[in-house]
User: What shape does this take?
Amino acid sequence: MTATDPPPEKTKGPGFPEFVCMIALMMALNALAIDSMLPALPNIGAALGVVSDNSRQWVITAYLLGFGTMQIVYGPLADRYGRKPVLMIGVGIYVAFSIVAMLAPTFETLILARVGQGLGSAATRVLAVSIVRDRFSGRTMARVMSLSFLVFLGVPVIAPSLGQLILLVAPWEAIFGVLAFAGVALMIWTGLRLPETLAPENRLPIQARRIALAFREVVTNRQAMGYALAMTAITGALFGFINSSQQIFFDVFEAPGLFTTVFALIAGGIAVASVVNARLVEKLGSRLISHVALLGFITFGAIHLMVTLSGHETIWTFGILQGLTMFCFGLLAGNFGSMAMEPMGHIAGTASSAQGFISTIVGSLTGFMIGQQFNGTVVPMTVGVTACGLVALGFVLFAERGRLFVARNAVPAPAAAE
Assistant: This one.
């Protein structure tokens, strides 16, 4: 922890376990809005007259584009007005557009509503990271993020099954009703239990010059930008898998009944990795764990590609190899995010929004491009995952000046830009 970070035991508000769960729910709104949609894509396409199966992927990508775009706005607002009011406004927007999506009469209206959902939920991404950074730093921050990811990543495990369960008893529109309910629950919980974590003396005015200087600092800091871009690359791989997954299970393996089960096992690999990381990160450090995991991510992706090209791919080889790849992703995500934010504590809101904007927009477009290459085989997805891993390795080498596994102290935070 830095000298300016308040000791967690003296901070008012929820205790450590409740705080972790609250942060996890903020992040879970995003995962729930993505993965619960997957089993419903054929129903949505049939109900709203979508001709091309690949066009249904816009239900995922439209949300992600809204989610990424607005992050660049929420950061400066949170640095000026505090974390809590900006969070409440963002979640309120998410709830409102969830209701619009539930009532959408056309595919175009649904896509616009999905963009709106993303615009609102972007606040949860920016504020979750900023609130954690307000209270913790370094390896402790990485541990908090890993524990939050554990709860958060339980959502992808159950979200497709939740979506499928809803479809058994109600039309696809009911899924958006559940999303609205989850948003309302978060608003009530944070409204009652979360204090403002940004001290009044640390608030920054919304000035074009200050914001420009802060963004310049983010994009010119080697460590922050290198790891943010590495996170962008592996995020692209994740979105490529998500965009392709429904078609792979339904069209390639012709096993729609196994979709939610195998998807849960793959997503479970990320959750297990988060548990492992939370236990080891304070002992081994973020660099050692994440660098080893990145090499594993590339290796398993390449093996999966070779199995696919050799014609030996089955639903079980897919589940095992993709699960191992996502296990490595789980070791990467929290650590890359923490190392990208480590030099940015003095402008946490702006830095979080800038990094989130880049990783989500570029990552979602990368994942969309991977998904759009779907040709009835698993080859495009495995090529995309492996390529994204190699690109991430290049950015990590840039951040670390060509060295891996070398633990070093965080770069001291410079004075805030005036």
Remarks:
- Residues 222-252 form the longest helix (31 residues).
- The chain has 16 helices and no strands.
- Residues 123 and 313 are 40 Å apart (CA to CA).
- Confidence is low (pLDDT under 50) at residues 1-11, 409-418.
